[in-house]
Design brief:
Strand order of the largest sheet: 3-2-1-4-5-7-6
Helix content: 25-40%
Shape: globular
Oligomer: single chain
Largest sheet: 7 strands, mixed
CATH superfamily: Vaccinia Virus protein VP39
Mean pLDDT: 87
CATH topology: Rossmann fold
Radius of gyration: 18 Å
Number of strands: 7
CATH architecture: 3-Layer(aba) Sandwich
Order of helices and strands: HHEHEHEEHEHHHEHHE
Strand content: 15-25%
Structural class: alpha/beta
Length: 258
């Protein structure tokens, strides 16, 4: 990872990037990153994942339905010949195959998450993998966010935010909220319906909602602790989860956390 991508934030994006890169390196130990094709579905503006993967050398294609996000992504990627960004629906993507298909913080925004996942998997090579990251639907992030909106704290946050660290939002589409509240059990059912099986699983950060974001998260020490502590806690306490999946074929799995 580049130095910029190594800096952690409230949501564990640096940790997420490490999970993605380490998983790919483990699954394709003999392959050079430059030969691995990655499809990032719902890539947003690419600032927090797709561009970082391209900077690491992967051949990255990002697709998103939000035109402003894709335009921003193209501007950010103007010096990266191995990063391509497309505005559109993955169901309309031409018949290309990828070694890695990623859906990062996407399924919770979808009224039909199974349909999106199924369409995305159609672009997966037979030996490829899927990486999915999703918030814990009943974790601290969701609870914190509901309290934030219930007590109408946006005005307070706007005043405080001027003094916070600058973080580039992962998307320019701020109208698409969460419409799904996932549990790990429900996610595993969803994966099975799409003929996918988990072979690696990990936790994101611990505390990640807006109230924390504008208080404790102003401390670098807290940010680092917040990223690490979930590795020692039950997965049900994490604000989000990372999953690496293969097509269900009964093969041996590695590093599965139950």
């Amino acid at each position: 990872m580049s130095e910029a991508n190594e800096r952690e934030n409230l949501w564990g994006y640096a940790k997420r990037l490490r999970f993605v890169e380490e998983t790919i390196a483990e699954v394709f130990p003999e392959a050079k990153f430059a030969t691995i094709r990655v499809l990032d579905v719902g890539c947003g503006n690419g600032s927090q994942l797709a561009l970082a993967l391209a900077q690491s050398g992967f051949q990255v294609t990002g697709i998103d339905i939000d035109a402003s996000s894709i335009e921003h992504a193209k501007q950010l990627a103007k010096d990266l010949s191995n990063a391509t960004f497309i505005c559109g629906d993955v169901a309309e993507l031409k018949a290309e195959k990828f070694d890695v298909v990623i859906l990062a913080e996407v399924l919770e925004h979808m009224t039909e998450p199974r349909a999106l996942l199924a369409e995305s998997v159609k672009h997966l090579n037979e030996s490829g993998i899927v990486i999915i990251t999703v918030p814990n639907g009943f974790g601290e992030f969701e609870i914190d966010s509901r309290l934030f909106h219930l007590f109408r704290l946006q005005r307070v946050v706007d005043a405080v935010a001027k003094n916070n660290r600058e973080i580039v939002a992962a998307t320019d589409n701020h109208e698409s909220g969460h419409v799904q509240s996932f549990t790990r059990r429900r996610l595993r059912r969803l994966f099975a319906e799409c003929s996918l099986t988990v072979f690696r699983e990990a936790a994101a950060s611990f505390l990640a909602g807006p109230l924390i974001g504008h208080t404790l998260a102003r401390s670098n020490r807290f940010i680092e602790w917040n990223s690490r502590v979930t590795d020692k806690l039950p997965l049900t306490l994490a604000s989000g989860w990372y999953f690496a999946l293969r097509r269900a074929r009964g093969e041996a799995s590695i590093g599965v956390a139950e």
